[in-house]
Write a structure and sequence with these properties.
The complex is a heterodimer. By secondary structure, chain A is mainly β. In chain A, about 0% of the residues lie in helices and about 50% in strands. In chain A, the strands form 2 sheets. In chain A, strands 2, 4, 5, 6, 9, 10 and 11 form a 7-stranded mixed β-sheet that branches. Chain A is globular. The N and C termini of chain A lie far apart (about 35 Å). The relative contact order of chain A is 0.33. In chain B, strands 2, 5, 6, 10, 11 and 12 form a 6-stranded mixed β-sheet that branches. In chain B, strands 3-9-8-7 form a 4-stranded antiparallel β-sheet, with no helix packed on it. In chain B, strands 1-4 form a two-stranded antiparallel ribbon. Classes of the chains: A mainly beta, B mainly beta. Chains A and B meet through strand 5 and strand 10 of A and strand 6, strand 10 and strand 11 of B.
């Protein structure tokens, strides 16, 4: 199946610093990528939808100035957590949708996630 | 979807026993339904999906699910589980509306298979 990678897999940073997480679709082009946040023992919460070449669409309650998303190419989307604080510590997961048939129901392929710990 | 409810947070079961993981949703429009599995320290993998057609959907690893529109349910079943099925399972519902295409996930069910 299609592969989506995330880098780094784990990052620890000091409060106030910025962290960039990369999401790559390795063997397909993804016009749409999604960023999720997963809290311990909780479901995935959609943060934003990223379309290549356009601004990301953020979900209600997600600060777009804090969580910067860039989808510069059909295989790469980045999430930058700016001025991170301990409450931003979480598991961030991206997914990419391969529009093989042009249908919005095409499968999402998920990355392995990035564990962010802010001290 | 307005919400997705996975009724059991944890399901312990003995190896080779059958299992059912329950999922209910609420929505005012047509939906597409998915089950994903997440193994420890890994990303989500698609088990199966319902888009249209037959309400009984077969997926990978011997799992199947049945879409019941009247009960707004999409329960996941396996007739005989293995130790390797121990993982977190997420039900997800996607719908397309004026805001675009969106997927909402349930809180997850931890399946623990005991020897």
């Amino acid at each position: 199946g299609a592969v989506v990678s995330q880098h780094p897999s784990r990052v620890i940073c000091k409060s106030g610093t910025s962290v960039k997480i990369e999401c790559r679709s390795l063997d397909f082009q993804a016009t749409t990528m999604f960023w999720y946040r997963q809290f311990p023992k909780k479901s995935l919460m959609l943060m934003a939808t990223s379309n290549e070449g356009s601004k990301a669409t953020y979900e209600q309650g997600v600060e777009k100035d804090k969580f910067l998303i860039n989808h510069a190419s059909l295989t790469l989307s980045t999430l930058t957590v700016t001025s991170a604080h301990p409450e931003d510590s979480s598991f961030y997961i991206c997914s990419a949708r391969m529009l093989a048939s042009g249908s919005v129901t095409d499968t999402q392929y998920f990355g392995p996630g990035t564990r962010l710990t802010v001290l | 979807a307005q919400s997705v409810t996975q009724l059991d947070s944890q399901v312990p079961v003995f190896e080779e026993a059958p299992v059912e993981l329950r999922c209910n949703y609420s929505s005012s429009v047509s939906v597409y339904l998915f089950w994903y599995v997440q193994y420890p320290n890994q990303g989500l993998q698609l088990l199966l999906k319902y888009l249209s057609g037959s309400t009984l959907v077969k997926g990978i690893n011997g799992f199947e699910a049945e879409f019941n529109k009247s009960q707004t349910s999409f329960h996941l079943r396996k007739p005989s589980v293995h130790i390797s099925d121990t993982a977190e399972y997420f039900c997800a519902v996607s719908e397309y509306n004026t805001g675009g295409f969106k997927t909402i996930f349930g809180a997850g069910t931890r399946l623990f298979v005991k020897a």
